[in-house]
Amino acid sequence: MKIYRKLDEIKEPFPNACVTIGNFDGVHLGHQRLFDVVEQRAYHSRGTSIAITFNPHPLQVLRPGGIKLISNCEQKIELIAMSGIDVLIIIPFSKEFAATPATRFVDEILIQRIGVQQLFVGYDYAFGKGRTGDISFLRQQGEEKGFSVTVIEAYYEDGVLVSSTKVRELVTAGKMVETKELLGRYYQIRGEVQRGKQRGGKEIGFPTANLHVDEEDLLPKYGVYVCQVIYDGKSYGGVINIGFNPTFSENKLIAEAHIFNFSQDIYGKPIKVNLLHFMRDERKFSSIEELSAQIARDVVQAKEVLGRTTRQIDRSR
User: Fold this and answer.
1) 99 phi and psi, to 5 degrees?
2) 3-state secondary structure of 132
3) Can you tell me the distance from the alpha carbon of 239 to that of 261, in angstroms, rounded to the nearest whole number?
4) How far is it, in rounded angstroms, from Cα 250 to Cα 49?
5) DSSP assignment, residue 212?
6) What is the pLDDT of residues 297-313, one digit of tens each?
7) Cβ proximity of 193 and 269 under 8 Å
8) How many degrees, rounded to 5, is the angle at CA 119 between CA 113 and CA 123?
9) How far apart are CA 92 and CA 301, in angstroms?
10) CA atoms in the 13 A half-sphere facing the CB of 200
11) Phi-psi bin for 84: left (phi > 0), alpha (psi -120 to 50), beta?
């Protein structure tokens, strides 16, 4: 997949450009369905499948603190690349860009810069100053300026509308199984491993990898989860606690993962953590011994969940 991070990097229009536009936060099943349609049309017209998105997310600029992202830009790029799209255009978003009239966006970006022939948008898409670039506007522009507009209707999974809003709702409720049904994959957090208090192995008996997390990130309900940790291309089972570690009266938000059958030094290294299943709320224990005993029970439960998950994957192959 070819990636353009600035519009002026595009030197000429693309051949038979089949284009979709959106924020694509989370790249959920609805987005994936949209990409599939774009790719199929591009294939049949011997054209180029193109996705246009924005960074940062427009609401991060227009309403700071008003949105927590399901996926950061790096992860979004990875997921769109996996979908098979030929070209990804990431438009830098600013308040100045937000003031661009919808007609100018169509003329200067979609037509002159990209060469749109076929445009595909979600059922609720709108863009431009004051969100004037709605479905009706796009259809009118397409008729006047020679490109087709296809609206992809809402997508439901087991009767549930697949949307970024619904995914956020499920994540913040700790409903990881339901979240996976809408994303088509496990919800993932990622970051570099930081040096913590070194209590996990020495005092508690369960060494942990500590991830730096920010309260501005979309984090699930605080508590303990079964997880898969991905490091250096390999996957390991584990348990992770996300919260404020009340047993030690800490006020810092943490994500501490105990990784099964793992002894590598990964301080300063990036890891990815898939959240599979919520096990319990975090709580304050009366002693380190009580905490250690609970973690031992968590580990047993987590291995049972991981075992069932592996069997389900094997049966589906």
Assistant:
1) -85, 0
2) coil
3) 12
4) 49
5) P
6) 999 999 999 998 765 54
7) yes
8) 135
9) 45
10) 19
11) left
